[in-house]
Write a structure and sequence with these properties.
The chain has 93 residues and is of the alpha/beta class. 56% of the residues lie in helices and 22% in strands. Helix 3 packs across helix 4. The longest helix has 19 residues.
Length: 93
């Protein structure tokens, strides 16, 4: 694949919280339970886990990735801060 991806993501030092929150948010949005396919289509977990997922997408040819926070509005600023401080610096080329 060459091109861009829109990726739902939730990163937090508490990887379990990030995964559960991301799955719940995306499942609610699409009215489909994403738990079984989350590892394939969502970038969730600790910052290190999210970086690994984004690198996997890059390895398949994605050269642009748009990150969409998968969390409630009340948590959005914190999740975006983690993405900006810990995930983006690790994947920028």
């Amino acid at each position: 694949m060459t091109g861009g991806l829109l990726v739902w993501t939730c990163a937090d030092s508490n990887g379990t919280w990030a995964k559960e929150t991301g799955i719940a948010t995306v499942s609610r949005t699409y009215r489909h339970h994403f738990a079984r396919i989350a590892d394939r289509f969502l970038a969730l977990g600790t910052p290190e886990e999210v970086v690994a997922t984004l690198r996997r997408y890059e390895a398949t040819g994605a050269d642009r990735i748009i990150l969409a926070p998968a969390c409630p509005a009340a948590d959005r600023a914190r999740v975006v801060r983690v993405l900006a401080d810990e995930v983006l610096p690790a994947v920028r080329v």
